[in-house]
Design goal:
By secondary structure, the chain is of the alpha+beta class. It has a single domain, classed as Alpha-Beta Plaits (2-Layer Sandwich). It has helices at about 10-20, 55-70, 105-115, 115-120, 125-130, and strands at about 25-35, 75-85, 95-105, 130-135. Strands 2-3-1-4 form a 4-stranded antiparallel beta sheet. The longest helix is centred in the middle third of the chain and has 18 residues, at about 55-70. The relative contact order is 0.31.
Length: about 140
């Protein structure tokens, strides 16, 4: 794999583009995650466990913290599982885990993503991830 800039947060322009797509109804977020070998809690030491943990363990803490807020906002975790080598895709690219999160609308997603209580635990995600991708998916009928 070539060294590249990690993608951990949406850019302002990407957020604006998402909300100007005119998405009506549910949206499913495809998350791809690459974990750090050891979680880095430098940005949020108040969330750090007493002993070092892996990025995967830190992400599991993030998921446990997040689920109640996700469900309260009308969202649901559809799938969370281990990744591996691509069947079709670059041989040198790896994603440790994938997740599908459904939200009832973009407005519900925004309310969830800006909830102060949810944000209080987002440091587990930051500590866990080396790199990530987030692709909003909108269902369409087959032609």
């Amino acid at each position: 794999m070539t060294a590249a800039t990690p993608h951990l947060e949406p850019t302002e322009s990407a957020g604006r583009a998402l909300f100007t797509r005119g998405v009506a109804g549910p949206v499913v977020m495809l998350n791809l995650m690459r974990f750090r070998a050891v979680a880095d809690y430098a940005a949020t030491p108040e969330l750090a466990p007493a002993a070092p943990i892996s990025g995967a363990e830190a992400f599991d803490r993030y998921v446990r913290h997040t689920l109640p807020f996700l469900k309260a906002s009308g969202g649901d975790l559809l799938f969370y599982g281990d990744g591996g080598p691509f069947l079709i895709g670059p041989a040198d690219e790896r994603w440790d885990a994938a997740m599908l999160v459904r939200q009832s609308s973009l407005q519900s997603f925004l309310a969830f993503a800006s909830d102060a209580a949810y944000l209080a635990g987002i440091g587990h995600r930051t500590a866990a991830l080396e790199d990530s991708r987030l692709l909003p998916l909108v269902e369409r009928s087959p032609v």
